Amino acid sequence: MSRIGYARVSTVDQDLETQMAKLKAEGCNIIRSEKVSGANREGRVELATIIDFLRPGDELVVTRLDRLGRDTRDVLNLIHECEQRGAFVTVLDPHVSTRGEMGHIVLTVLGMVAQMERRFIKERQREGIEKAKGDGVYRGGKQRLDRDQILQLNADGKGPAEIARVVGCSRMQIYRILKGGEALAGA
């Protein structure tokens, strides 16, 4: 029986250390982490690896439910997949587990709250952008990656994994940029 921790933040400039420390303190002998949106499962390679690895009696541990996902249906599907493998899901804050029937009810409600919170965040973001546009100060989102550098590395024959290491991002981000018009060299 393994306790497997999963830590996630949405953007590359956010820090995983607090989640990692809590998962270690909880006795997780394996911890996987990634910097990717929790809006859906797309690009969440580490989470997919954990789900594939789970065995009967294992436990997937997250610090908060929104680290697992921000869509109620997606979170419930993830929990269902874990249970199909005979594994449990435990959330540390608030402490709730699928080991008991009440845990399922609480996790369902928390999943709905996480989804609602995401909708509120998106709405506030949209309102802020509209106000900034109206004030003439909106210039769009900050570009975090040098697309020209990525395309040049790819043209030089570097593969997506190597490019991701060089520029310090996920392979999925590299694939998205390369898919945006350039052919994948070395892939």
UniProtKB/TrEMBL annotation:
GO BP term, pick one: DNA integration
PROSITE patterns: RECOMBINASES_1 (PS00397), RECOMBINASES_2 (PS00398), RECOMBINASES_3 (PS51736)
UniProt entry keywords in alphabetical sequence: DNA integration, DNA recombination, DNA-binding
Family annotation (InterPro entries): Homeodomain-like_sf (IPR009057), Recombinase_CS (IPR006118), Resolv_N (IPR006119), Resolvase-like_N_sf (IPR036162), SSR_resolvase (IPR050639)
Active-site feature positions: 10
Pfam families for this protein: HTH_23 (PF13384), Resolvase (PF00239)
Domain Resolvase/invertase-type recombinase catalytic: 2-136
Keyword DNA-binding included in the entry's annotation: yes
Gene3D superfamilies: Homeodomain-like, Resolvase, N-terminal catalytic domain
Molecular-function GO terms, alphabetical: DNA binding; DNA strand exchange activity
Family: Belongs to the site-specific recombinase resolvase family.
Identification of the protein by name: Recombinase family protein
Lineage start: Bacteria, Pseudomonadati, Pseudomonadota, Alphaproteobacteria, Hyphomicrobiales
